[in-house]
Write a structure and sequence with these properties.
Layout lengths: L2 E6 L9 H18 L3 E4 L13 H11 L4 E8 L5 H14 L4 E6 L6 H7 L10 H13 L23 E6 L2 H10 L3 E3 L1 H4 L4 H10 L12 E10 L2 H19 L9 H6 L4 H13 L1 E4 H15 L3 E5 L5 H14 L5
Parallel strand pairs: 1-2, 1-9, 2-3, 3-4, 4-5, 5-6, 6-7, 7-8, 7-9
Protein name: Luciferase-like monooxygenase
GO molecular function, one term: oxidoreductase activity, acting on paired donors, with incorporation or reduction of molecular oxygen
InterPro entries: Bact_Lucif_Oxidored, CmoO-like, Luciferase-like_dom, Luciferase-like_sf
């Protein structure tokens, strides 16, 4: 049975205070728990005019206090910015707040530009090469298992200790993350929405082929995250998608802005080249009625032979975004 989860990116909307995006994320977590989604993940970006969730561990603490059943986690912590011990301590505290519900998704990408990466960590240029070692240390500390006796940090522990521990995931949009996940026997989620699927099938296959079973995960566990938006009618869905399509035009030029209203996006003037590009985006997007979007999700999951799909949805109108998750959940037999 296909499990559905949610990735919320705390997207800033034009004309609205950025702090509202954070409050909307917390409220959306409560909404998605009621709808029956399996997980609710939040992202990490820095100095980004569109995606303003810069501290997933703090946001997750707020969400933990507002939810009771749904798994919650990071998608993900960009580990090269941080010391593994500090991340382990943060997620051990989250585990104390919501025992058995915490996911620690890890990524190697900066989630920012080079200047911002240096501001976060002056050694940022060197950290990606240490990623496998950092993952190994983090896994030990967050799970409470010992490091090798000859390890310089062997006596160090991450507290608070507890009977449960976060579920560590590897996230990625390239083959590298798939290989690291396979090596450590971790679940793996491919950012399908980030690459429009490019490289996804290959990464998932490499992950399965090279998977080394671990005690917690004896079998490979692959998932993907897709961008999708559903509405009562296809016309309405395309209307709300206009905001995202216009944002993607800006992104192609290296410009990142708050999400504009669909009325602003539809009323703007576009060149012939831009019109062609937006038509291409609409043709590939998972946008339509609940039934249409669900059909596309199921078809992709079956083609990739995966059992879990996370859905990320942007909409200027928050009620349209909430309704999208409701319609998709309904199509998969999930009830509020």
């Amino acid at each position: 049975m296909l499990r559905l989860s949610v990735l919320d990116q705390s997207v800033a909307c034009a004309g609205q205070p950025e702090g509202e995006a954070i409050l909307k994320t917390v409220a959306m977590a409560e909404h998605c728990e009621r709808l029956g989604y399996h997980r609710f993940w939040v992202s990490e970006h820095h100095s980004h005019p569109t995606i303003v969730g810069s501290a997933p561990e703090m946001l997750l603490a707020a969400i933990a206090m507002k939810t009771e059943r749904i798994r919650i986690g990071s998608a993900g912590v960009m580990l090269p910015h941080y010391a593994p011990l500090k991340v382990a301590e943060q997620f051990r505290i989250l585990e104390a707040l919501a025992p058995g519900r915490i996911d620690l998704g890890l990524g190697r990408a900066p989630g920012s530009d080079g200047r911002t990466s240096l501001a976060l960590n002056p050694m940022a240029a060197e950290r990606p090469a240490q990623f496998p070692n950092d993952v190994q240390e983090l896994m030990a500390w967050v799970s409470g298992t010992p490091l090798p006796e000859d390890h310089p940090f062997a006596p160090v522990t991450a507290r608070p200790r507890g009977e449960t521990s976060p579920e560590v995931w590897m996230l990625g949009s390239s083959l590298y993350g798939a290989q690291v996940a396979a090596h450590f026997g971790l679940p793996y989620s491919f950012a399908w929405f980030f690459t429009d699927g490019q490289g996804g099938p290959e990464a998932i296959q490499i992950y399965r082929d090279r998977y080394q079973p671990s005690e917690r995960f004896p079998e490979p566990n692959a998932g993907i995250c897709v961008w999708a938006l559903a509405a009562e009618t296809e016309e309405e869905a395309q209307h709300h998608y206009s905001s995202r399509a216009r944002w993607q035009l800006y992104r192609d030029r290296g410009r990142f802005t708050p999400l504009e209203s669909p009325e602003r996006a539809e009323g703007a003037s576009y060149s012939e080249t831009e019109i062609v590009r937006m038509d291409e985006l609409r043709a590939k997007a998972m946008v339509g009625t609940g039934a249409q979007v669900a059909e596309k999700i199921r078809a992709l999951a079956e083609r990739l032979r995966i059992e879990e799909v996370a859905v990320v949805t942007w909409a200027y109108d928050e009620e349209a975004r909430r309704r999208s998750y409701e319609l998709i959940a309904s199509e998969f037999g999930m009830t509020e």
